[in-house]
Amino acid sequence: MSWTAGGDWMCSACQHQNFKKREMCQRCGYPKYGGPDPATYICNATKVLAGDWYCTAMNCQAHNYASRSSCYSCGALKNDHAAGGYGSNAYGSDGSADPPGWKTGDWVCTR
Question: Are 54 and 63 in contact (CB under 8 A)?
């Protein structure tokens, strides 16, 4: 872990900069002190579900839930082609293959 001015710290596992008050990394949950070997720690082990998308704006790469219309991290609007999204325009509706992990009959709720 490295420290920045004011006591903020950078996570040893994912390199995310955290505020001084945090005891665990905001991004991956790695503890501020101690913890397993950062090289083997499973960073950001959130499960990617059908409809989720990754932001590619300015190399953001944040994992966003399907319900989000903009990136939680940088605020960029969801764009099915640029963001690699699994929205209704990207797969299925035009006869192309379903997104990874989808089964026949799967769909994304628009509410």
Answer: yes
**First-last CA distance in the chain:** 41
The sheet with strand 17-18 has its strands ordered as: 2-3, 9-10, 17-18
Contacts of 72 (CB under 8 A, 6+ apart): 62, 64
Cite the beta strand spans of the chain per DSSP E. Answer: 2-3, 9-10, 17-18, 53-54, 63-64
Instruction: Check: pTM over 0.70? Answer yes or no.
Output: no
Per-residue pLDDT of the chain (111 residues; tens, 9 = 90+): 666 668 899 988 888 899 999 999 988 888 998 888 877 776 545 577 788 888 888 778 888 888 888 888 888 888 754 344 444 444 444 444 556 667 777 777 766
Give me the phi and psi of 60, to 5 degrees please.
-65, -50
